[in-house]
Design the sequence.
């Protein structure tokens, strides 16, 4: 009864999107599109509907549902996200994304929960919580008033960019790969390089895909390269996706990044890995091929023409 009421409160398009998102027989890529449109609509009802789909049989969709809850940035998502983080039977990729989403919402009330999991036995979860704790503290301190290099993308990130005074690509790259620094400071250098948003800063960033110390860090580098959509990083992303020993969270982000860069080489690679043994990688290639098609389609031209909001992030 309650669910029916909440669906009816959404507009007609949202009702269709919720229907599509919750339809486990629909194509994964269609459910993805529905999810990202709902994310862009945002608000309490979208949070309710997205939360209701958690947990789905697709691990990949699950983590994206959690990601979108963080990006909508509403406190209403906190109970669901907290329950996911606490449940050690759930997958690493989902628990990581739930912790990151809690950090994105950035409420001081979440601090003690996040702190409890900073030493989680799953390394990716522990590191995500360490970053989230630092971000929430930063957000609620006077440091967050200091000017940073502005973000040209619409994402809420696990760390802010670095100071607006440092736009020196080689010094930022040095910080990026310096394992003596905290992950938070290396992330800040990463987001500075992303926000500079040039071919040169993308090449500097792609070196981070070689940092063997943290799979979480490498997956974030791949994600950020997907946002930048610079074709000069296709070889590095292809190499990481092709490395069967690489962590599946990293390979997943590389696949999606290649989908959004959407060149002919990207198409070839994604076709090659769409039958990968790992389900998350396989499904990522399926979604990435849909992103690639979208990037090259007439709809994208319309979107650019009318400058409407972004469909897939
Ligand atoms: Fe992630
Ligand atoms: Fe992801």
Sequence:
């Amino acid at each position: 009864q309650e669910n029916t009421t909440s669906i009816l409160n959404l507009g007609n398009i949202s009702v269709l999107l919720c229907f599509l998102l919750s339809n486990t027989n629909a194509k994964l890529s269609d459910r993805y599109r529905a999810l990202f449109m709902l994310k862009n609509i945002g608000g309490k009802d979208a949070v309710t509907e997205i939360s209701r789909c958690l947990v789905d049989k697709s691990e990949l969709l699950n983590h994206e549902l959690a990601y979108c809850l963080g990006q909508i940035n509403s406190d209403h998502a906190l109970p669901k996200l907290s329950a996911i983080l606490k449940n050690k039977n759930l997958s690493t990729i989902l628990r990581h994304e739930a912790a990151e989403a809690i950090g994105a919402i950035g409420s001081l009330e979440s601090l003690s929960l996040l702190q409890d999991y900073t030493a989680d036995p799953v390394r990716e979860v522990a590191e995500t919580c360490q970053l989230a704790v630092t971000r929430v503290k930063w957000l609620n301190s006077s440091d967050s008033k200091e000017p940073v290099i502005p973000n040209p993308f619409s994402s809420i990130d696990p760390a802010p960019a670095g100071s607006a005074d440092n736009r020196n690509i080689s010094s930022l790259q040095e910080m990026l790969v310096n394992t003596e620094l905290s992950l938070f400071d290396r992330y800040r250098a990463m987001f500075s390089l992303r926000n500079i948003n040039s071919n040169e800063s993308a090449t500097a960033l792609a070196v981070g895909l070689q940092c063997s110390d943290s799979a979480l860090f490498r997956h974030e580098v791949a994600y950020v390269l997907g946002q930048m959509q610079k074709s000069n990083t296709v070889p590095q992303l292809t190499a990481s996706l092709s490395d069967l020993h690489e962590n599946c969270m990293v390979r997943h982000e590389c696949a999606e990044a290649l989908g959004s860069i959407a060149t002919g080489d990207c198409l070839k690679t994604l076709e090659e890995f769409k039958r990968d043994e790992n389900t998350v990688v396989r499904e990522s290639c399926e979604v990435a091929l849909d992103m690639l098609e979208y990037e090259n389609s007439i709809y994208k031209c319309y979107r650019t023409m009318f400058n409407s909001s972004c469909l897939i992030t």
In short: The domain at 1-145 is CATH 1.25.10.10 (Leucine-rich Repeat Variant).
